[in-house]
Amino acid sequence: MSIETTPSSTPDPKWERITAAYQTGPAAAPAVTIVKDRQPTVAFEFEPRPRPAWMMSREELKQWAVYARDNTLDWTVYQLTHSPYYLGWSVRGYRRLCLRWWEARHDDYRQQIATAKLMLRQAREMPRGEARAAAESKARALLEVRRAEFKAHKKRHWIRTGISGLVVVGGGTIAAAVGGLWVQILMAMAVVLTGAWFGRPEEAVVAPVQAPTRTSRLGEDAMRRVLVEAGVVPEKRAGEIRGVGIPHQDGPGIAYAVDLPSGIPATVALGKAESIASALGVHQDWMDLELDRSAGSNASRLSIWVSSEDPFSVVRRSPLVGHKGPLDLWNDGAPIVFGKRGNTVSIRVRDTMMLVGGATRRGKGMLIANLNLGAAKDVRVNLRLFDGKASGEHNAFGRILATFVKKDPERLALFLRAVLEDLDRRSDFLDERGKAKLTEDLIEEIGGIELIEIDELATYTARGTSRFVDEIVENLCQIAAVGAGLGVLLVCATQVPEVDVVRGRLRQNLIARVAMNTESPGASNTIMGDGMAGQGYDASQIPLNQPGRNWMSTPDTGTIGTRSFLVEDDDKPPILADAYELRKAAGRLPGQWRDPIEEKLTAWTGVSSAAGGERGNGRIVRVTLLERLEIVARGTGRDCATNAEVFRALAATDPAKYGQRDGEAERAWSSRAGKLLKDELESLGVDLEAKKVTGPDGERTLGYTLADVLTARNARP
Ligand SMILES: Nc1ncnc2c1ncn2[C@@H]1O[C@H](COP(=O)(O)OP(=O)(O)OP(=O)(O)O)[C@@H](O)[C@H]1O
């Protein structure tokens, strides 16, 4: 296609005529127009616009007005007939407001004062000396500060209460006195409604109706067939099976209940779960059979739940993501896993000792992270973590951990020694109060609940890994045996579920078990207990593509299939920041309270492992022999230490070498330890001689002065 254009040099008479008028002015040329003859305007005819669907006709409008009037009347009658409820709510509302006022008055000052008092009591229990005086005066000062703060807070609270009370009562009285009857009625209604608003029920008053479902494969007829095929009910009695209620949606599956014929208990069906699953055409994991324990139930009522897909194929986020505020792990537990029906299963930190096992990368760390996030939010829990893998996965928790140590069997051995000593203190504490075991009201006074976690037990308990193995195993067994009643709990995780790592005596006392996927049914049994794989609880059958899925057995839940919640690395910081603030406000961060266990560790080793040590990552820097001598000499408060004091300190850190042996007399031990110390100093090339120093009772005896120790330290390259 081509377009013809007029060459620019060719004159165009029409254009020339138009431009001539502008070149010479309007007077020089006649007026021109490009439209020759103006056409008359065409008048378009529109179709009448249809009325939009939202616009009501007169009739509809009238009908709507009638409905609105009737509905308003119904609503008013309903509200009037229910006003006794609202009065009840109102009373409850004002009671709640009073309680809130009372709580705001105390805030958490009472707890802080209790902690300061505890510090004072603990300081008084220390041996006499400067350290005790310092600790006592620090605790007393803290107590006074807390009391003064509480007093000031109460004063502020009273002032606020007074001002708001004056405004409300004064304003109300003036309005009631000046206004007429209507004002008084409106005010009375406002008073009742305000109370009713704060006293409204917390849960839906009416339970949601069970929604029937058309996709249900369950029903009375289906259940008759299934129970006969599975051999639970003889064919001739199938007609006696009765459905209870209707099949309804419950989480990702459908639930139904049936009454078995008389004389056949529901437990018979529980024993034939596999055959029932097969008759229903689903995997056993997709089905849940239970004895119906609801009100009005009986021993023959079987509750059945079936899903049309694997309920653990979904990944669920932890409910702690986005959660604000404290948790109560003693009563409610920490939400760490979900069950088949998508229900949250919480683990109470009360008297549970737990063993978590499974092959590598199967989700043990994730389960522990869930537990730790929950525990972080209960300020009464002292979380102590020994990470045998020495990975960075627990670093985010560092600043709230009362103890955090990576891959250090010697420190774990010392730590367990300190815990055993603390168990004695705890049991004396309960003895004095005539209690057999720890109760909730005594948690704060006793110093909190100890939650000790050992992630990768094999690092510490497998034979030949360190010279501390036997001691660690023995002490773990003792803690597992007696700790629960004293508020000292153990959680041990292992990739190697072998008897060599989890000794029988230890396993017996770790009563809660969680088995992630294992390599063999034998390994599964090492965690869950002998014969459990044969009963269907075989962790080696857990699909590999479902990390975090496990068999869990606790006294609260029985043995159930669960999967841990997912917490991504980015989810942790906000939860931990919230936990940090909660602990800070309650004075329960590492360093804010007197921790008898860390205190002992620091005295024995010279370094603290609270909040992961100096670097906060669980790598605890070791202290040399001279540094240890310096710590002992400073610790006496006399700038020197007697031989007996030095040997005792060394025996605490290295009992195998410096400890007093069974049957060894004091004098023999002292001379052996003295020789060992001399040899060790010589082998290090340190020039340090024992000389006469002042003992704790003012006597002159052999020992080391702080000045000599410092000179020897400084002389070293
Ligand atoms: N409940 C879960 N939902 C989804 N993914 C999970 C779940 N649990 C664990 N995972 C994923 O599985 C992988 C392994 O998890 P984790 O590190 O907890 O295993 P582990 O058993 O502690 O491993 P290791 O023994 O090597 O320490 C991670 O990538 C994690 O994201």
Question: What is this structure's SSE topology?
Answer:
Blueprint (H helix, E strand, L loop, with lengths): L12 H12 L33 H24 L1 H24 L2 H17 L4 H49 L2 H18 L21 H10 L12 E9 L2 E7 L6 H5 L2 H8 L6 E5 L9 E7 L26 E6 L4 E4 L6 E4 L6 H13 L4 E7 L15 E4 L2 H24 L10 H4 L2 E7 L2 H4 L7 H18 L1 E7 L9 H6 L2 E4 L5 H8 L20 E6 L3 E7 L7 H15 L9 H10 L19 H11 L4 E3 H11 L1 H4 L7 H18 L7 E4 L5 E6 H10 L2
Helix pairs in contact: 3-6, 4-5, 7-9, 11-14, 11-18, 19-20, 19-23
This protein binds adenosine-5'-triphosphate (ATP).
Adenosine-5'-triphosphate binds next to helix 10 and strand 14.
> What's the helical proportion of residues?
40-55%
Strand content: 5-15%
Number of extended strands: 17
Strand order of the main beta sheet, please? 6-5-14-13-12-7-11-10-8-9
Q: What class do helices, strands and sheet pairing give?
A: alpha/beta
Mean pLDDT: 85
Number of helices: 23
* Poorly predicted spans: 1-6, 25-29, 204-208, 211-215
- CATH homologous superfamily placement of the largest domain: P-loop containing nucleotide triphosphate hydrolases
**Principal-axes shape call:** extended
Q: What is the number of domains?
A: 4
CATH fold call of the largest domain: Rossmann fold
Question: Which CATH first-tier class of the largest domain would you pick?
Answer: Alpha Beta
End-to-end Cα distance, whole Å, is 97 Å
Radius of gyration: 39 Å
CATH architecture of the largest domain: 3-Layer(aba) Sandwich
> Can you list the ligands bound to this structure?
adenosine-5'-triphosphate
The description of the largest β-sheet is: 10 strands, mixed
Keywords: ATP-binding, Membrane, Nucleotide-binding, Transmembrane, Transmembrane helix
GO molecular function, one term: DNA binding
Protein name: FtsK domain-containing protein
